[in-house]
Amino acid sequence: MLDQVVCVAAVTVLGVLEQAYFSLQVIYARRKYSVPPPATTGHPDFERVFRAQANCSEYFPLFVITLWVAGIFFSQAVSAFLGFLYIYGRYQYFHRYAESAQGRLAPLYFTAKVQWGLIALSALGVLCSMSRLYLGVDLFSSLCEVLGLNQLE
């Protein structure tokens, strides 16, 4: 079983490390711009770092859940690849937002597309598993056959 989720687990750990990095950046910005906790306003450069970290943290649970559901029910390889893209996109988002509010938009749209991809693969994987389990119909194999694809794993 572990070999079927090790890549998803690795991407999850990478995502957690990224979140820790973002949190440290807020601590550094607090010190640099003299914004003591629990204040969340102050110098505009601090506020952008703070909002970038908060926004990334707000979407992290949705990312992790869909990463794992897609990895378990659809494809570990595809899920891990999309997860890595998401983490890269969030890194870009964080740093571009820290520079300027407008800079965040391109990485924001990129990560939103990746997230919707994970949501779609999660839904498709669960639907295919439920149809196989409860209806005796292997939708995934049928879909691959119709599309002329081999199974992903």
UniProtKB/TrEMBL annotation:
GO terms for molecular function: enzyme activator activity; glutathione peroxidase activity; glutathione transferase activity; leukotriene-C4 synthase activity. The keyword Glycoprotein does not apply. The chain crosses the membrane at residues 59-88, 114-135. It catalyses: leukotriene C4 = leukotriene A4 + glutathione; (13S,14S)-epoxy-(4Z,7Z,9E,11E,16Z,19Z)-docosahexaenoate + glutathione = (13R)-S-glutathionyl-(14S)-hydroxy-(4Z,7Z,9E,11E,16Z,19Z)-docosahexaenoate. SUPFAM superfamilies: MAPEG domain-like. Pfam families: MAPEG. It is found in: Endoplasmic reticulum membrane; Nucleus outer membrane. GO terms for cellular component: endoplasmic reticulum membrane; nuclear outer membrane. PROSITE patterns: FLAP_GST2_LTC4S (PS01297). Keywords: Endoplasmic reticulum, Leukotriene biosynthesis, Lyase, Membrane, Nucleus, Phosphoprotein, Transferase, Transmembrane, Transmembrane helix. Pathway: Lipid metabolism; leukotriene C4 biosynthesis. Its main location: endoplasmic reticulum. It is an enzyme of class 4 (lyase). Its EC number is 4.4.1.20. GO terms for biological process: leukotriene biosynthetic process. It is a multi-pass membrane protein. InterPro entries: 5_LipOase_AP (IPR001446), FLAP/GST2/LTC4S_CS (IPR018295), MAPEG (IPR050997), MAPEG-like_dom_sf (IPR023352), Membr-assoc_MAPEG (IPR001129). PANTHER family: LEUKOTRIENE C4 SYNTHASE, MICROSOMAL GLUTATHIONE S-TRANSFERASE. Homotrimer. Interacts with ALOX5AP and ALOX5. Catalyzes the conjugation of leukotriene A4 with reduced glutathione (GSH) to form leukotriene C4 with high specificity. Can also catalyze the transfer of a glutathionyl group from glutathione (GSH) to 13(S),14(S)-epoxy-docosahexaenoic acid to form maresin conjugate in tissue regeneration 1 (MCTR1), a bioactive lipid mediator that possess potent anti-inflammatory and proresolving actions. Belongs to the MAPEG family. This is Leukotriene C4 synthase.
